[in-house]
Amino acid sequence: MGKNYIDIENDRGETLRYRKHVNGRGLVAHGAKVHPSAVVELGAYVEPGVHIAAGAHVGRGVWVESDADIGTNAEIAPHAHIGAGAAIGASAKIGIRTHVGNGARVATGSLIGDDETIADGERVATDRRGLRLAA
């Protein structure tokens, strides 16, 4: 039986240890908290300080930067990027290759389409069809 973690050196020369999440085999850094019922697919990276709630699904190739918060039953589609300190509300859906900026907030139940960009610090709320609501 092989080891259940890997060590990766970051840009500052520090070595970070990532463990393979039991649901999906994605890589979760030491210091991140991922609920056992959440799925982190193979090829996804979850950085230190991240919190992923129950029932959330993080797709292949997703990068969740430090201190981000992914709500209950949220769905992050493949190859999305969730910036540092961003928050994705419960049951929100983030599209393929979508970039959510640092400190951005996506409201509960929002639908963010494919290939969209949410700016750093931006607050977004949509209806079930993905139409943005007034702030």
Automatic annotation (TrEMBL):
Q: Keyword check for Transit peptide, yes or no.
A: no
Keyword annotations from UniProtKB, A to Z: Acyltransferase, Lipid A biosynthesis, Lipid biosynthesis, Lipid metabolism, Transferase
Please verify whether the record's keywords include Glycoprotein.
Answer: no
Q: Which PANTHER family match?
A: UDP-3-O-ACYLGLUCOSAMINE N-ACYLTRANSFERASE (PTHR43378), UDP-3-O-ACYLGLUCOSAMINE N-ACYLTRANSFERASE 1, MITOCHONDRIAL-RELATED (PTHR43378:SF2)
Protein name (Swiss-Prot/TrEMBL): Transferase
Q: Which organism is it from?
A: Microbacterium terricola
